[in-house]
Amino acid sequence: MSDTISVLLFLGVIAYALFGGADFGAGFWDLTAGGAARGSRPRKLIDVSIGPVWEANHTWLIYCLVMLWSAFPTAFAAITTTLYIPLGLAALGIVLRGAGFAFRKASMRTPEQRIYGVAFAVSSVLTPYCFGSVAGAIASGRVPTGGAGDPLTSWNNPTSALGGVLAVAVCAYLAAVFLTVSAAQNHSPELEAYFRRRALLAGVVTGAVGLAGIFILQADSPRLFHDLSHRGLALLIISALCGLASLALLRSEKPVALRALAALAVATVVCGWGVAQYPYLLGTHLRIDEAAAPTPTLWVLTGVAVAAGALIAPSLALLYVLQNRGRLETRS
User: Fold this and answer.
1) Is the CB of residue 70 less than 8 Å from the CB of residue 293?
2) Whole-number Å distance between alpha carbons of 79 and 149
3) Are 253 and 184 in contact (CB under 8 A)?
4) What is the pLDDT of residue 301?
5) Is the pLDDT of residue 135 over 60?
6) Alpha helices in 140-230 (DSSP H)
7) Please, what is the average pLDDT of the chain?
8) What local confidence, expressed as pLDDT, does residue 315 receive?
9) Which residue has the higher pLDDT, 324 or 231?
10) Nearest in space to 132 (alpha carbons), one of 160, 95, 153
11) Residue 222 burial (CB < 10 Å; 0-12/13-18/19+)?
């Protein structure tokens, strides 16, 4: 049962990495779009693309938190009492990002729009970096089983920095691919070419960061490096191939295949991390079965997860389908 729950939890992590990641990545391109005049068209497409779905994407984060603290309370306590600074910054970023996104569209004056736009864009970079650094801290075994680990060095280290930078790069890549498709669907060849160039750049940067990460992990987290290069190697190879294929398809008129390949490239990277870390929850210690809640609790959580999947997943899927078809309108 503990393994089943861990799989259900990790499915939520993958979903948040994909949908929340594309959301955060759109904020990255908002940040780098330039001044008010030059960046108006890209920002308008970003607003239209994420407006109807940005709040729904955080459903996966809530799901992950509830599953973690209910199914693995020891691990939850250890993570939150050690990594409370990056987790707090990530929570602050989510709040500021939502407020900035909402108030920017409601503001009438340009100075106010700039302030809210900066809050939205900067938070879109800060939040995935913090989540990536948290993943790096957990994977490298810097979270003690008893919790209360070092609040600074636990997430300020080479592996955590790699995780943070890689998270930002992956989000930017995923968002650029999705926005390229959105621009094509909106019959805007200029914006399509604009985001295609950024998707290529983000793909190259992400690949370069991944290659540099090999040497960082080898020096800083030898166990993680060993397991990624053995048990997780097949998934990393699939991720690289999907990423290259998605970049090759950027000029094609195959939006479904393009988005699927980009999503699969990101999902397999996250899966590689999970496979490399198994059977530990905290990277190098605290096995999944040792941290699990009592069996009756796990059975209840399994039932809740199945019921939530049956009720919520179709609703979210319908929301994304309607958005992709341009059937939803956002107020400017």
Assistant:
1) yes
2) 9
3) yes
4) 93
5) yes
6) 158-185, 189-220, 222-228
7) 90
8) 83
9) 231
10) 160
11) exposed
